[in-house]
Amino acid sequence: MNRNLSLVLSCSLVLLLATLTAGQTCGRIEGRTTSPEGWVIAGANIRLVNKTTKQTVTVKTDGNGKYSTCLAPGTYDVVVNALGYKLAKRKTIKVESTAKNLIDFTVKHDPKARVDQSHP
Q1: pTM
Q2: What is the C-alpha to C-alpha distance for residues 70 and 95, in angstroms, rounded to an integer?
Q3: Going by fewer Cβ within 10 Å, which terminus of the chain is more open, N or C?
Q4: Segment holding 13, helix H or strand E
């Protein structure tokens, strides 16, 4: 009987720990993209590249210039690319499990700029 109780308690503990740690495998990066005048930049491409794995995630800003994504823990470079604006970059952003990083961008006008996702 004692052995069965120990087995049940052990299994319960494992399940409890698994439940508590589930969903804690990503960190959030979110922010807003605006022009120097404060205009929101809707539809901008936000590209996040994991510096170790080179895995790339691309999201777009919404109608309010906001973006948000959940990423595996690691270190990322972030690039904003929008038609009519210069590229904006942030390097070595550390993403930790369950943490939230607020990364806002102000992008400068460049009428010659075009959307090109080949830039790192």
Answers
A1: 0.72
A2: 9
A3: N
A4: helix 2-21
